Amino acid sequence: MGYGGFLTILNGSPHDFALSGQHSYQMDTWSWPTIQAGTSAKVYVEFGTKGNTGDDGGEAYYNIAGTSEKFSVLGRKPRDYQLTISLDGLSTKQSPQGSKVELGFRHDAAVNWILSTDEADQWWSNSGTTTDWMQQSLGSLGNRTLKHIALPGSHDAGMSSYKPGTVGAHFANTQAQYLDFYGQLMVGSRYFDLRPVISNGKWVSGHYSEIEGPGIWLGGNGQPILDIVKQVNDFTRQYKELVIINLSHTLDTDHDYKDLSQDQWNQLFDTLKGIENRFTVQNPGNTDFSNKVLGDFITDRASVFIVAQLPNGISLGNYANEGFYNQNNFPFYDSYSNSNKADDMENDQLSKLKAERNIVADSASRKDKFHILSWTLTQQPEDVLNFDKAIMNLGTSVYDHLFDKAFNAFTPESFPNVLYVDSLGIRDKSVVFPFDKPRSVPTTNDIAALAIAINNAKAGRNGYVTGQN
């Protein structure tokens, strides 16, 4: 057997990627399909093991049907395994015509080539930078409501580090993100699950769960809230993007993990008032801001929209006029699968999406509540002491299927708003033997390119969403 891996080609355009030819030398597997419009194909390739493997190579040539544009897939092993896209007759917003886009190679895993086109017939790809992808997309997204836009999201966003909490907690069962808040913003995340807790009298991110009956807790702490405030400000001073922060799972860990009092909530809001560019309106009442269009938030500025999941008896008071909102101002569907099995989670999430989203012009049939696709695996009791089943490893284990299984299940009438993941921005296991700390792994902005492709190829083909119906 040779040395194999996958290339997922995601066609986020209304044109077929038509195979016009292919050939290879000493490749054990090199066979390419035509890729239909609006679909992705995960293609297995295998380099040979016989002879001079440095000569292994293959080429596949694609014409974009109905256009004069084309690109090629190249497989080479000059020093290391490499899959490359050659933009022979095509340019994108990120890469000029003639560019060679090196995708790398992952043994028994996938690399991605994501290519989509927006309403203005501009080509987008996962090469180059998409840091300000919302601003770059305003031409097609500016008049769409938030509930009709897809964006990457960070589960347990503040848990990018680990500081000891309870007995039995460690980084493998508590840390959910590899990149800190700023790093997540830079690779494209725009929806953040932030769980503030009081620990040793300080506001920090927390990840705590009550287990084995009342009063027994497991968990630890992540980034300090003041550090997150600074990192959000560092980002929004550079980029005029929309950042949504959802506050939930708040606790006072210094006093038996009690819910926060009204005074403590007020202290939290005062701390978060350090966030600049908060989106503010006077007397918001019960306005549903997911019905507002993206251009209302970021046409000429950055906006940070902060929504708090408030327990009974807690109110915003005057903070409602200072850029803080409650759950009535941003209703959403979020139902995680509570499974550590990839197939069970994926099938559950895709079936819930199909049942809960039907974005059509007919109001009697329409279902379009802001939808969070929880593409996350949940540790079960048998996983808690298994470092190989670390939360971040579980996150990367389902990463590849976002680009084939999930994308192919999305339709113009049923697509998610948030691609909600652990380990956002990485695709390789970061927790490996000797399990003392996460290892250094490369980062990727592919999930931002995937969100762009969903906005182009799925939402962008829905006339009700684009206003063409």
UniProtKB/TrEMBL annotation:
Q: Which GO terms describe its molecular function?
A: phosphoric diester hydrolase activity
Q: Name one GO biological process term.
A: lipid metabolic process
Looking at the record's lineage, which domain of life comes first? Eukaryota
Protein name, UniProt field: PLC-like phosphodiesterase
The upper taxonomy is: Eukaryota, Fungi, Dikarya, Ascomycota, Pezizomycotina
